[in-house]
Structures
1.
Amino acid sequence: MSRKRNHILIVLLIVALMLTFTACASQTAAPAPVAEESKYPEKPITVLVGFNPGGGSDQLAQLTNPFLNKYLETPITNIYKPGATGAIAWTELAKQSKNDGYTISVTNTPMLMTNYIMNDDITYNIDELTPLVNVLTDPGVIAVGKDSPFKTYEDFAKAVEENPGTVTVGNSGTGGDDFFTTLLWEKASGLKVQMVPFQGDGPSYQAAQGGKIDASFTNLGVVYAQVQAGNVRLLATFTKERSGLVPDVPTMKELGHEVVAGSSRGYSAPKGIPDDAKAQLLEAFEKTFKDPEFLDNIAKLGQEPDILIGDDYAKYLSDNEKEFITIWDEVKDQVTK
Amino acid sequence: MDNILLGLTNVLTLINILAIIGGTCIGLFVGAMPGLSATMAIALLLPLTFGLPPATGISMLAALYLAAMYGGSIAAILIRTPGTPAAAATVLDGYPMSQKGQAGKALGVSLTASLVGGVISSIALLTVAPILGGIALKFGPVELFAVAVLGLTMIGSLSQGSPVKGLLAGVVGVMIAMVGMDAISGAPRFTFGSIQLYSGIPFVVALIGLFSIPQAIRLIEKDQQLIKPGSIKDKMLPTFKELKSMWVTMIRSGFIGIFTGLIPGTGGDTACWFGYNEAKRFSKHKEKFGTGYPEGVAAAEAANNAVVGGALIPTLALGIPGSSATAILMGGLMVHGIMPGPTLMTQYADITYTLIWALFLANFVLFGVGLLFTRVSVSVTKVPNKVLGPIIIILSVIGAFSINNNIYNVYQMLLFGLLGYLMDKIKIPSAPMIIGMILGMMLDNSFNQSLMMSQGDYFVFFKNPISATLLAIAALSILQATPLFGFIRRKVKKNQSTHMDEVG
């Protein structure tokens, strides 16, 4: 309701601004209530979002911020710095932001690592960050249109085996999560497909739905609604265990290949934030993750939480980094030729 | 069908209705001011709508677009200066009417014609949209490549003035589209080692720069003497009898507007002349046109408002803007993370239908607001240029910054502003450049994707029926600009006229 009222206010504000020919951007931050025992946090916390408002990262921030606000008792404000698939915001986080614990950022895998692995111009790396928590993982899936001749993963794998390098498989973009999922799967299965990068998840799965390409490696959250509507069929998920959302779809592990992959979103801070601040932040996150209202909101998005806290998240990032470096070294010559 | 109803219920929420009324008021005033075009107003206002939900923000901009089309006729009728280029044909009969003391009637006719034109095109949009949704999935990379090629050839043959200059601007636009990370290989192109250029040049930044800054400089260059606007003394609403006589003209102009809007790169500025000329051609009283004949006003105004709906059809269905103003609306969608194109009709159908219904509703809001506020808006035609110019520049800077909260975009915007100013001085149109930017991205990606899907076989574009047809039309469109085609056309025309002579 308050969000709705806000929107009405925004409309009125814009009208007033234009009609009177004045424009001034003013952001009124609510005064920060001072925490009583610990010194941190004594001012608002800024969340750097490296993508556009309304995107997946913003969705996570919008979902989590109210709970951080509740448990840290300080306002949490989003600042959007979209560009270079998050690299502008993450470079700022690593190189320019104060490491006082008042600036954190939504960090996505694999983009957080693949950005600098693939491009020399991007100079930050995960060693310059303090990984805080992972919140969600939108698992990778293999999706086909409802009219596709592939009824099961076996049909698909057989076709790929018989026609190496010609079955067309869409992904959300070179360097994105689906791109790397495909590479990991190719490596594990020894099969070879023709990868077709699209600009984002939507165009990729819709090309498969319309029969323009044979299949799409995409994410469960992206196609879940279409799967329920019966327009898209899933052949496999890249999850550890069968997803509660689509219990009938086998995991790649069951099908014989150890590939667990997807697109994860969490939070990181700059390197070297005060121990006190880190402890407080982690505590607030832990409380958030136990809050039934929070879990309920995540489920409403068609997502499943994938919680990793502190060092676990750091290990997850560095393991992934190693894996991506290896695989990128193997394929970069054929991709960028 | 569900989405159509969902869109309707979305529109009928307080926030969206407020947004439409707000957009209409702003559009009316902006349109009334000579020197501010609808395109520029949308470009400037766009960043301010980022905080709104996508459907609300876009509805507001669409309402503004529509209202500015009518607003432009206020200055055209009262001070003989079209408030927007789309009102240029309105001057011919509108100003003589106001000299005869019929300013109110001229405005009333203009408002009614705007309503009729707007409603016809909204209905067209509503009818066509579900069909487009159905074919949207048929458009894969191969078809989209052909669409992009067709769109590019159209800017050449249809840009006003010199086609060569239009093509030149289009090509530069395509080149600008190549800046940034290549979606296929992930390799940075023309980024000069700066990660600020990795995502390419934001489309809205270029738009604000190209459309606003040159205009602001122009306004400052020549501070025009104020022309005292005529006052409105008579009644605005036309009588039923007057309406009845203009009915056919308004409907005809409505359809002309829709079709003009459909063609990429042509907008209200072209449609108003088409509408006016056709009305004159079909009229029994040709001699009355240009002397203060209400039908002349109606013809031009119905056409330019109908453009709005028409121009949205290719924008929503294929991601090819039908006019420069819809190009900016598209930029607005992109800022909200919505890629225009086939997905708009499937994945984002709720937003799309909200927008279409908003446009429908905005026609009636405009009629009401127009009746109430036209008299007030006369005063804004008096705002001096030296005040307007700096305000535009300030709004441009705020707008460019707020896209990504990045000062770098402000510099880019100012550079585009200078480029736009230079282009303006040597009479190179900027609209084809914007279309080039949009289509360039589509062309590059769909070309690569198609070849990947066909294992490098270039004939994939000719084997597919949709793309083969579109490419054939594109080839015709190019040929039509060559001397060969001109020769054939002259010959045909000659035959026709001799034939007519025989009959006559």
Note: The beta strands of chain A are 45-49, 76-80, 103-109, 129-145, 168-171, 194-197, 215-219, 232-237, 262-270, 305-309.
2.
Amino acid sequence: MFAFAKPALATPADRLIAAARWRWYETAFWLGTLLVLFAFPGYLQLASQIAIVGLFALSLDLLMGYAGIISLGHAAFFGFGAYVAGIIAKYGWGEPLSGMVIAGLSAGLLGLIVSPIITRLHGIALLMVTMGLCVLLFEAANRAVWLTGGDDGLQGVEIWPIFGTFTFDLLGRTAYLYALIVLFLMFLVARRIVHSPFGLSLQAMRDNPRRAPAIGTDMGERVRIVYTISAAMAGVAGALIAQTTQFVALEVLSFQRSAEIMIILILGGTGRLFGGLIGAAVFMIARDQLATSYPQYWYLGIGALLVAVVMFARGGVMGGFDRLVRWWRARAGAGR
Amino acid sequence: MFIKRTNAGRAAALAILGLLSATGVAPAQEPLKIGLILPYSGPFADLAAQMDYGVQVYVKQHGDIVAGRKIEILKRDTGGPNPDIAKRLAQELIVRDKVDLITGVLFTPNAMAIAPVVTEAKKPFVIMNAATSVITTRSPYIVRLSFTLPQVVSPLGGWAAKNGIKKVYTLVSDYGPGHDSEIFFKKAFTEAGGQIVGEVRVPLRNPDFTPYVQRIKDIKPDAVFVFLPSGEQPVTLLKSAVEKGLLADGIRLIGSGDLTEDGVLEGMGDPALGVITSGHYSYAHESPENAAFIKAFEATFPNGPRPNLTAIGAYDGMAVIYAAIKAQNGKLDADQTIDFLKTYKAMSPRGPIEIDPETRDIVQTIYIRKVERKAGKLVNVEFESYPKVKDPGK
């Protein structure tokens, strides 16, 4: 987004290359995530859950923030991935990496199967259908007690150590590093997609869905591809939650999970890659701190936070900072 | 310039986040710390409040200093049956807050998720509610002070068969405790000569009882055996039963104590009169211990709910924790605590209780009760008791 503040470059290709350049603050952010290991050793369980939820939010950001496809049922893929990873681990194959890949591919396949419906819908209808899909999966998992354990949750999930050496320890060091590395790799993928001609055509589709096809964008195809990628990414996030907690509850498919991830993404800022990650961190740290201090009334604090962000920082936390900086710059300019 | 300043802002934001998460606690002394995990927020907050009150009443009665050590209770919220959150909270309580013991836990999935954590960390885990039979087998550090469904419903099966109920239809919630109660009621009832004429498992979330009630009415059993989680659902079921004329047809309602749980019993009104349940605790239990408990409860929370079976589980949970600390002169060593609790015996407000050394599960008197109106209040009046019932589920 910073690229737009600069004078327009000669060709779209130049512009894409400029936008895709790795920036120092990105390096700082990722180095900072490593610092958590040493700075807050007691918070690694929370940190690993933030990384997982951040990945889930990132997958939704590709869909909502970049392609403009609103989904109120993204937990369908998250939960599907979680159940796939959990079930294969329960029935004898506890190797985490391959389990995660299988879960991601399965969720992606599910996304591919559903995507033709998605291409035909917009707005409220899209909200309803995505939500309906999630409810369908929830009920299916609820009824298939023999496979999923229903309301009792999937018990007996045993995950082997990563590479046969790194066990999932009580402190959460392995869980955090595992989740963080997967998140980083997925971030690279998302970043590559966003800064590609394909990514640019998604944004064109989002910004002007009438004009995009007029200049030759095959919207149906774009939607199918991005929906499949996003579903696979959400499935990977689901697999991570199943593997790090070694348990799958029906709640992974709940409507609340779908709604919450949307809130997290809006809180952080849509269409910014980092938005989902920042949103997940802000939401979950605020929740953790508030819930520890006021176990009964912490929802009040979360509500106030959401209202404040929507009122004072449109575009989420990231958008708020952008505006703050712009205001600061304008003031500095006026005082000169 | 623009880019640099933006990044400075972003860095500042990250720093603020960092500070926010660094506000840990630094204790001056070394109190004994107890982690209390309950669903304080969300749809089950009422039951969590009952349990929290039970804990508070015990602490108020017995002080927060035991054998010279101050007791600090750290409360954590799971928001409902969320095993991933419950597991993380248990890990954090142990790793970050250095608690000596974990307790609370309303839901079976949460208890199941916490079990491997306490096994690995070697911390005692006192379960105050979660009632699926299998839980105590999941860790050698678990002790349960509530009840199990097989324990509660088996006596009812025997009682029903001997008291003129020959044909029963069972209606239970489709999850662990529901399956447990269906299987063990059926077993006890058929062994005593009864006959099951039909069974149904209803969804745990928002079931509509009308079609089930209609079907039962057509089959005309002597009674319907019901297990539903305590709270709103029994009220809804009773409403449907009245509307469809099930009770008018002389079909009786029997079930586990959850059906006429004290917290909502008053709200059920007169149709609840005559419902027979089996349970381990009744507000109307007549004993000096229960009178003292209720007096303390009502004095502490004059506008609070009537204490129910979850409150008593929490109250007794605190009682065993205090007893274990006293027995170790102000310590809470995991293995010693469990060894001590294996031989625990006491007179609780619910009646005599003890811990089975084999299973670390509670052994207690199960009462058959009937809903009656006494001094203007609807209560479960106990009229038959089965002493020292062990969990038959293991």
Note: Residues 1-6, 11-28 of chain B have pLDDT under 50 and may be disordered.
